[in-house]
Fold each of these.
Amino acid sequence: MATSRAAKVQAEIDKAKAKLAEQQTRLRELESKKTEIENTEIVDIVRGMSIPLDELATLLQSIRGGALPVSTSGRNVPKLKTTATKETLTESADTDKEADTE
């Protein structure tokens, strides 16, 4: 009788291991797919910039080294402090609106 219960538990263990291996394989496939999609997006962005290939490496190294300011949409936008609260942001927006109306 004890062998029967042990065999059932071993069968459950084997089943769980098989499911785990299947999920690990699925996870690796999804991570690989995500990386491939990200790489495709990066290539599309770079190609859209019309930068000659020989200048691209120099530009990226300059940005990494901090030699060039990185801007968004042609505007320099200061980063928000992580301690900013919703009220602080709302007050700031209200102040901006008042300044625009004056």
Note: The chain has three helices and no strands.
Amino acid sequence: MMKKITEEFLHFLWKNQSLAGVTLATDSESKIDVLDPGQHNHDSGPDFFNGKVQIDGTIWAGNIELHINASDWLKHGHQDDKSYDSVILHVVYFNDCVITRQNGQIIPVALIKFPSILWEKYNTLLHNDSWIQCQNNFREIPPVLEAQWISRLMIEKLSHKNKILHTYFEKATSHMDDVMNQLLFRCFGLSVNTIPFEMMASVIPYTRLLRTKGNQFQLEALLFGVSGMLHTVLPNDIYMQNLNREYTKYKSTFLEKQVPTQSWKFMRMRPSSFPTIRIAQLASLIHTTYPLTEKLLKTPSLKTLKNMFRVRAGDYWNTHYLFGKESKHSPKFIGQDFFHRIIINGIVPYMFFYGKVTMDQQYSDYAISLLEQVPAEKNEILEKWRKFGLKAHNGLESQGLLYLFKEYCKHKQCLDCQFGNYLILHGKEAS
């Protein structure tokens, strides 16, 4: 007997009962037919909303609750929650007690039965400590299912990102371009310096950037001043002296809000990605492209976007990677790989969000089309997926695979994954 079965597995069976060989039985001779399992609820309240069942010829519509033991209803305190009075069917694995509504009316109960091989296959996946749980059986998954699931994952990731952008939007003091500005700062921080770049974006009002955008040097003074980098060493060249002199115009406003110098990371980074270079490039981009939203609403081609973002840091940085330390002459343009990162992590989520906020689908579709045009990223996770036969051909596929690993595989969410679902329901016995 499968005594350690989980409620999550019961939810999986209930959603897939037409495929899983699930049957329902009652202690009486009542006949139960499931017309609609309902909508899975991941928040508080009954497990499935708006289900529809037929009991002895009578159709009932309402919510459905699932438990391992019928007594779990009492254990979870549902008897004191009026929202559970709407439950039309209590589905359980062990029926160990009678459950009633608050008015004393008995709630119909059904015992769920299913082939034991389903639990065995899931349990094998769950306790597989390989890089991904299904890697021993992964090649059983049909290519069509792979493509469909990866595309859906990318939409899921963008929808999740929308929640974050809504917090930006709620705090925005001017308009939507403020959201784009905060996203862009994050992009320039890469993964290593995301937090200090976010701090800069939160300290400098977007309207201040707009007022300053006409003068690139003033932008550099403002950004480097707020970054706190001008105070890490004494000025030892004319450029630093001029930056400090220019920053005195803003110092009284931003002095107490400057980013702590210890927040910046330089170690184990390529010099071209040093935050000094990224800040200088960001100043140049603001100077040439802000306000950015009005340009993006024209849905420019990827080639046009590339030309817009083909900016370089100011002249000083032709011979520097760090303040006061000269290097070989090399103009610091935004490179192609970094441009693609900005598209994937900045422009795409922003335009997808813009389309949802304005209820104009063309902008969300534009975001997806950009993802399909940019090349896939290259990293260790994607290389491992490639070895299993899943090679990302563009940004949409690579982002979907990265999201799959981060949100599903790492947390063993096989029951919520279409790959896991297929292997449990249709695959060979897991090995």
Note: The chain has a mean pLDDT of 92.
